[in-house]
Amino acid sequence: MSDIRELYQQVIIDHGRHPRNFGQLAQATHQHLGHNPLCGDQLTLYLIIADQRIIDIKFEGRGCAISMASASLMSEMLKGKLISEAESLFHNFHHLLTDRKQDESLLANLGKLGVLSGVCAYPARVKCATLAWHTLHAALIGDNKATSTE
Ligand code: ZN
């Protein structure tokens, strides 16, 4: 188990230091600013959506390793997915971080996002890990106000 935890840790550090899909999307159809005042994490999410599908996704911002890694992993995971699939992933991911009994099928369903499962032991960091997802949700429903985890 400790080997797996160590591997998870390495993936988080890698994505935190070198976030994938980092930058702006000039052609974005949706964009939203999210903020986690508890930790100081801030990010702007850019999406190109057509026919209920996320064609492209990028983000920029700054924050702790967990918030950046989570946004990076989310962007990799969601490119090409239907909005309904993205919302179901968010639901499952949130469940993974807030419910301490982690079942195997949930982990399998989440794929690479499972590296963040250890965050559930640190309730204060759950907001870091879910910031990108809350921001995504707000962007999708067209909420014009900036999103705060508070
Ligand atoms: Zn944070």
Secondary structure: elements and pairs:
Blueprint: H1 2-17, E1 30-36, E2 41-50, E3 53-62, H2 65-78, H3 83-98, H4 104-110, H5 123-141, E4 147-148
Parallel strand pairs: 1-4
Antiparallel strand pairs: 1-2, 2-3
Helix pairs in contact: 1-2, 2-5, 3-4, 3-5
The chain binds zinc ion.
What's this, in brief?
About 50% of the residues lie in helices and about 20% in strands. It has about 150 residues and is an alpha+beta fold.
Bound molecules: zinc ion
What CATH architecture label applies?
A: Alpha-Beta Complex
**CATH domain class name:** Alpha Beta
Q: Helix amount, in percent?
A: 40-55%
Strand adjacency order, main sheet: 3-2-1-4
* Succession of helices and strands: HEEEHHHHE
Distance between the termini: 34 Å
Note the total helix count.
5
CATH fold-level name: Sufe protein. Chain: A
Helix and strand content put the structural class at alpha+beta
**How many separate domains?**
1
Q: What sort of overall outline do the alpha carbons produce when their principal axes are compared?
A: globular
Please give the largest β-sheet. Answer: 4 strands, mixed
- Number of E strands: 4
Beta-strand fraction estimate: 15-25%
Write a structural description.
With 150 residues, the chain is α+β, with helices and mostly antiparallel strands. The protein has five helices and four strands. The chain has helices spanning 2-17, 65-78, 83-98, 104-110, 123-141; strands at 30-36, 41-50, 53-62, 147-148. The chain has a four-stranded mixed β-sheet, with helices on one face. Helix 1 packs across helix 2, helix 2 packs across helix 5 and helix 3 (83-98) packs across helix 4. The longest helix is centred in the C-terminal third of the chain and has 19 residues, at 123-141. The radius of gyration is 14 Å and the shape is globular. The mean pLDDT is 92. Zinc ion is lined by residues 36, 39, 41, 63-64, 66-67, 128.
